[in-house]
Structure formats: structure tokens, C-alpha cells
Amino acid sequence: MKAVCWHGAQDMRVDNVADPQILNPRDAIIKVTSTAICGSDLHLYGGFMPGMQAGDIVGHEFMGEVVELGSAVTNLSIGNRVVVPFTIACGHCFFCDSGYHSLCDNSNPNAGVAEKMWGQSPSGLFGYTHILGGYAGGQAEYVRVPYADVGPMVVPDSVSDEQALFLTDIFPTGYQAIAQCDMQPGDTVAIWGCGPVGQFAIASAKMLGAARVIAIDTVDERLDMAATQHGAETLNPREVGNTLQLVEALRDMTAGRGPDICVDAVGLEAHGVGLEYWYDNIKQSLQMETARPIVLRQAIMACRKAGTVSIPGVYGGIADKIPVGALMNKALTIKTGHTHVQHYLKPLMDHVERGDIDPSFVITHRMRLDQAPEAYEMFQARRDNCIKVVMQP
Amino acid sequence: MTPYRPIDPRNDDDTELDSAREREKQRALALAASVGSLMVGMRRGGLSGLLLGAFSGYLAYRASTGRGLKGTGRALARGAERTLTGHRTGPLDLSASITIARSREELYAFWRDFTRLPAIMTSITAVDDLPDGRSRWQAETPLGGTYEWEAKIVEDVPGERIAWRSVEGSDVPQTGEIRFAPAPAGRGTQVELNLRYELPHGLLAAAPLNFVNALSREAVREDLRHFKQVMEAGEVPTGAIHASAHEGVAR
Ligand SMILES: NC(=O)c1ccc[n+]([C@@H]2O[C@H](COP(=O)([O-])OP(=O)(O)OC[C@H]3O[C@@H](n4cnc5c(N)ncnc54)[C@H](O)[C@@H]3O)[C@@H](O)[C@H]2O)c1
Ligand SMILES: [Zn+2]
Ligand SMILES: [Zn+2]
Q1: In this structure, are strands A81-83 and B134-140 parallel, antiparallel, or unpaired?
Q2: Atom of ligand 1 nearest to the CA of A272
Q3: What beta strand segments (E) does chain A contain?
Q4: Which of B6, B237, B240 sits opposite A55 (nearest CB)?
Q5: Which residues in chain A have their CB less than 8 angstroms from residue B57's CB?
Q6: In terms of CB atoms within 10 Å, which of A108, A355, B25, B98 comes out highest?
Q7: What is the CATH number of domain A2-169+339-392?
Q8: Domain A173-336 is classified in which CATH homologous superfamily?
């Protein structure tokens, strides 16, 4: 089959590889019909995520048709059209039982390594670092899906591929970023990053009743999408200035209070203005920190007293100069993690089916799997107003 | 656990590690080195300590993927190899514990049938039941040999504890014990595995020596993790996508 394989920084290739097989009783094989490139894939493409190996099949946002089932999967049938959560979860451990599927105890075959890096291991992920299992991903013609009896969800006929696909990751991710914050009536939500995750966080904040949403990004087309699609107010750091100036602007916009909820939907590759950016850029390239935590610093500094900083943006190792004084003295709450997709799949599918939201709004490019190298290049450079690429094998 | 590789030979940077034995050796070396740098990292503290800790995580990850230290520093590897294959004497105690969301009775019942242990213990290839609470164990050593011994159950408290020891005259006298205790607030069972190997003075045959040298706290912990995976999820996970790349534990 054809599959998109990582071969190093800035080097994705479409390789010819062997088809996947059923290896465990709870496995299924899915024939992929649609797959997307995520901002998380850009961290791999940029070479910022440790634990990748040349030849790894990438991709964790995919859906398709069930073509083969392991002996223990009885709830699906051959031919079912399914979406597959990007978090691989057993469905039976303490964490799965508690709705924390991205923290599943049993799905990471390399849990020992993750424990060394982080103390405990989160769940395995499709098409990501070997620290999280080295599972082959779904930017491919076929993919092996473990625990298929609890992960994949059958898509109703009335919902198209393009409407269902983002239930695998970015819609639940944007939704969880807000839902985990105990939002109160009247709350203002500030969201850094208007990529696909940011867009769904903005949409979800509106859906969940935020009084105001302030969208922050350095790319004008993305700010435009936030304003026109969801009625967000916008802020471009390139116009406002450095971290202190941005924090001041947010304080002014909220009459001195600060946003009640601050969302970092940017992660470890944040851009910045001036000295701060160069400081992090140099430290990151010398591997003295694994992130440029510019947005995280801003979110902590800007956040209202006793407010919540929510971090869907991905981080891997260690970061420098986090304003821990602001965190403590303002009594902030931090909420973060990979998304517990299985937990949100059903309620969000219901929203899509009822027409409350059409997640396909975020798609800007439709391409063939063959064109993946070009698609990665374009998405990374944010060329041609590229916000979200969907590929078909 | 070896990740899936494309069939295009140009993409294969692992050809010199073709033999599984070599991979196993690399795995042991990298794990040893990872533990070493983790300890140094912890003792140092501070940022450099944290970084060393992260480095050890990276090494452990290479170990887990069978790539070992290849290209990470051959001199380091040679040093570690000498340490590993050097003669060791005295008792070697290895313990690990884990919480499993199952009752003590279920966990006890699985473990009490020693013939099921190869499904979760990476180094054990077979266990055969013999009469009178005795059993015959077979292990594969990292360098490809096999090592066999006989054990007998010395204590058996249903739902609580099983203890066993090798019979008189074993190359490497050993004792094992597994304990089951209730976790707080109905959160399943806390399982503790304690193993002790008595390493005699004098030269040992290569197979038992290789077997014992490959043992580590990490390996014991990994076996307990497999126990948990089988009991909670019904299977041991693998990141492979096809059988020829599937070199995880036996199931
Ligand atoms: N927690 C999860 O489970 C989960 C799931 C999916 C994605 N993610 C992560 O979420 C993050 C965003 O994903 P995405 O798909 O939207 O990626 P993306 O790369 O398309 O979007 C990132 C956006 O951040 C903007 N940005 C960069 N620096 C900024 C700054 N200083 N201030 C404001 N905006 C800035 C960029 O211009 C870009 O629009 C990534 O880190 C991704 O890995 C996490
Ligand atoms: Zn993603
Ligand atoms: Zn689980």
C-alpha cells in the first residue's frame, strides 16, 4: 500500500509499504477514505519531536471502511464507515473508566520509556513518536486499529466524510480546551493560535456560551476566519508588540480584569516578537529547551486571578522562564493533556448530526495522498491561505 | 516492538542489526546505559540533571525499539558491555509493583497457573507443570541460548501470595514471590513481584550467566506491565503493523 512516511526534518515521502495485518484479537483493519494533516504532524515535520525513526508511517486524523476484524471485535461489521480517535485506549483501565482516554494505562507498548521522560506514561497515539508507542499512522491506504471494539465510531449516513473526519482529533481537542475550564456566564475566553485547533476552540467557546472570545494569531487569514465564522474579536501580536504589550492589550480589552480563560492552542513552536523569540529560538536549537513557550508565558501573565490556563498545544520536554510567580500569586488553574477523544465522540457526533456545527468549515485544501510532501510544505509555510488539508488515498 | 519499516531497501538503516540476537544485546546495553545516566542525572539535580534524565529516557526508548546504542557512542557501548558481561556474585534482588483494576482472586488465579507466565514474562519461553507443586522453567538468553531450571512452590495463600524457589542443585539458586493486596477505595489490587538470584562464586556456564545479566528492575517492571495489560485489556499492545515486524512478547 501507499503510506506517508517520515524520513527526517522537512522530509515526508509517499512510500510503498506492506499492508497491515490483524495482530491482536481486538484489532481491526480500516481502508482509509479521508485523512488530514494536523498541526501536531508539523512538530514531526519540523523535527521537534524526539523518538521518531526514518520510515515511520504518520497521520492520526483518519476515517474509513472496516475491511477486517479481529476475533474479539463484535460490535463492528465489515463495511462499516467509521471515524477513529487519534488516542489509542483500551477502554477498561482506571483512566479509560474515568473518561481520561488519552491517559490509558495499557495502550503504550513503550510505556517504560515515557515513564523515564514524564514519570508516568499517557496512552499510545497513531503515527506519532515511539515514546508514545510508534503505532503506524493513518495517512495511508490501510491502517491497523487496536482496541477496535471501543475506539472507532460508526458514522451516520447523513454525515459526510468531511463533516465527520475532524471528530478524530481537532474538534474534540478544541472542545475539551474549553469544556475542561468550568466556564461561567459572562466569561471572556482568549485563544492563542487560530489554526484548526484554535478554530474549534473558538467555535466551542461560542457553543458553550462564552460572553466574548478574543482570537490571537500572527496570520491574518486565520484571524479573518475566526472573525467571520465565529464572530471572535481578533488580536495580531505583530501589530500589538512583545509579551508585555500583548498582556497589557488584553488587560485593556477586559477593563483591567484579564481573560477568565486563556487557551494555548499553539504549543512548542510559537513565534514571537523581538528578543524573547530569539532567546527561545537559540536555546531550542541548542537543545537546552525543547519548546519556545512564548504563548504559555503570555497566557499565564494575561490570565485573570483564579482563572484557568488551558493548554491543548503540544509540548514534549522542558521549557524555560515560565512565570511561576504569576501562576502562584494569581492562584491560576492549569488544564492540559491530549484529548480524551473517546469521551467526546458521541456528544459531538450528535451536534454534527443535528447541524449545530459543520466542522468542514476549516478545510481549505483537498488533495491526493500522493501529494502529501507538497501538502506538508504548504501547510507549514501557511502558503496559499492553507489552514487544513484533507487527503484521499 | 520493532517498528514497521518500508520495504524499500534504501530506507533501511538497520541492516547491520539484522540478527535478533544483536538487537537483544543492543537493547540490554542501551537500557543499562539509560539507567546509568538517569542515576547520574538524579544525583546531579538541576537542569543538567533533568537533561541527563531525559537523555536516559531517550536511551531507554532506543532500547525498547531494539536499536540500542548504535550510533549513539560505540565506545560507551563497549564499556557498558564489559560491565555487563563481567562476573557478578552475591544476591541480586529485583522488585517491582503495579496497580491492576482487577480483584485479588482473579489475579491470583492467573498467576497460580505458571504455564501462562510466558504470555507476560518476556524472557520466559515455556513453563511446564510437574507433579507436587513443581514446575520446569525455560528461558531464552539475550545471546540466543536457552537456560532451564526447576522450581517448586513453597507458599501458597489463595488471593494473597505465592512463593516459589528453585530446587536444590540449580546453577543459579533463585526465589520468587508475588503478593496481592487491595488498593484503596476499590481501585483494584496492588501487585508486588520480588525476585532474588544467588550468584555463586566461580565461573558459570554461559547461558545462566547471560540470563541473569539481562535481568533488571526495568525488565521485571515490564513483565508486571504485561500482566496488567492482559488482565485489564485482554492483550499485550504492539506498535507493529504486520507479523514479521511483530517481535513483542509472546501472547
Ligand atoms: N492536545 C491535543 O490532543 C492536541 C490535538 C491536536 C493538536 N494539538 C496541538 O495544538 C496545537 C495547534 O494545532 P493546529 O493544528 O491548530 O496547528 P497550526 O500549526 O495550524 O496552528 C498553530 C497556530 O499558532 C499560531 N501562532 C504561532 N505563534 C503564535 C503566537 N506567538 N501567538 C499567537 N499565535 C501564534 C500560528 O500562526 C498558527 O496559526 C499544536 O501544538 C498541536 O500539536 C494538540
Ligand atoms: Zn492532531
Ligand atoms: Zn485504558
Answers
A1: unpaired
A2: 31
A3: 2-6, 12-16, 28-36, 56-57, 61-69, 81-83, 87-88, 124-125, 142-145, 153-154, 188-192, 212-216, 233-235, 261-264, 308-311, 333-336, 365-368, 389-392
A4: B6
A5: 113-114, 116-117, 131
A6: A108
A7: 3.90.180.10
A8: NAD(P)-binding Rossmann-like Domain (3.40.50.720)
> What is the whole-number distance in angstroms between the Cα of residue B219 and the centre of ligand 3?
22
* Predicted complex: ipTM over 0.90: yes
Superfamily classification of domain B87-237: START domain (3.30.530.20)
Helix axes B20-44, B206-214, angle to 10 degrees: 40
Q: How far is B220 from chain A (nearest CA, A)?
A: 11
Q: Is A116 helix (H, G, I), strand (E, B) or coil?
A: helix
DSSP, res B102: S
- The verdict on a CB contact (< 8 Å) between A106 and B57 is no
Closest ligand by atom to A104 CA? 3
Chunk chain B into consecutive blocks of 10 residues (it has 251) and report each block's average pLDDT, rounded to whole numbers.
34 37 48 43 44 53 47 42 51 95 98 96 94 93 86 97 94 93 96 90 73 86 97 96 57 34
- Please name the residue that has the C-alpha cell 454525515: A159
